[in-house]
């Protein structure tokens, strides 16, 4: 009887271990599949950011100028209102987008004589200026190349709310990928004696480099 109970207990432990091993494998490959492309992107841009001076492209700037039509000029005519930040009127924004090829949305800076719309973006910058007196529109768009674009995605620079959410979700997937990998290492460590020495090296190497070379 005692032997039967022990056998059942061992089978129960084995079944529980098998269950959790299966779960860890499932979560490990799911999180790795979700984060794979992002990991490749961030690993590549980690190198390009570390060697930014060596891979920096030549900025290309496009300047355009035009004059706002009379019917639209009335919508941005000078007044006595204090300086403020507010969007362009919808018809003006649509005309700016069609004429300059740049976004007309977003908060613009309104002063007595000028409206200035800053248009920073990943891998470049831009702006649109509108003279409220004569309707002169000046725009400038600068592109620093695709490497700079990817670097800015890595840093989350001028990428907007949606990309910031993506980075958070991607980071959570990477954390789950690493955590389940660590737990799988623990489960297989008895059969792989080099597991924990290699993990220790992975911890010690950056720590030693930081202590010795970073001040």
TrEMBL record:
<keyword id="KW-0812">Transmembrane</keyword>
<feature type="transmembrane region" description="Helical">
    <location>
        <begin position="162"/>
        <end position="184"/>
    </location>
</feature>
<feature type="transmembrane region" description="Helical">
    <location>
        <begin position="196"/>
        <end position="214"/>
    </location>
</feature>
<protein>
    <recommendedName>
        <fullName>PepSY-associated TM helix domain-containing protein</fullName>
    </recommendedName>
</protein>
<dbReference type="InterPro" id="IPR032307">
    <property type="entry name" value="PepSY_TM-like_2"/>
</dbReference>
<keyword id="KW-0472">Membrane</keyword>
<dbReference type="Pfam" id="PF16357">
    <property type="entry name" value="PepSY_TM_like_2"/>
</dbReference>
<keyword id="KW-1133">Transmembrane helix</keyword>
């Amino acid at each position: 009887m005692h032997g039967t109970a022990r056998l059942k207990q061992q089978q129960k432990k084995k079944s529980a271990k098998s269950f959790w091993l299966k779960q860890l494998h499932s979560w490990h490959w799911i999180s790795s599949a979700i984060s794979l492309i992002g990991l490749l992107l961030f690993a590549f841009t980690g190198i390009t950011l570390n060697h930014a001076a060596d891979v920096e492209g030549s900025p290309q700037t496009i300047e355009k100028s035009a004059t706002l039509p009379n019917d639209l000029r009335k919508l941005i005519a000078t007044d006595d209102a204090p300086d403020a930040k507010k969007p362009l009127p919808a018809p003006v924004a649509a005309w700016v987008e069609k004429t300059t090829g740049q976004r007309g949305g977003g908060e613009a800076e309104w002063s007595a004589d000028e409206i200035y719309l800053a248009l920073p973006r990943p891998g470049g910058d831009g702006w649109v200026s509108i003279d409220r007196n004569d309707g002169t529109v000046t725009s400038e768009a600068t592109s620093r190349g695709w490497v700079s674009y990817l670097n800015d995605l890595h840093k989350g620079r001028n990428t907007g709310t949606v990309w910031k959410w993506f980075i958070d979700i991607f980071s959570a997937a990477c954390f789950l990928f690493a955590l389940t990998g660590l737990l799988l290492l623990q489960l297989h460590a008895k059969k792989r004696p080099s597991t924990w020495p290699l993990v220790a090296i992975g911890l010690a190497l950056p720590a030693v480099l930081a202590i010795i070379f970073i001040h």
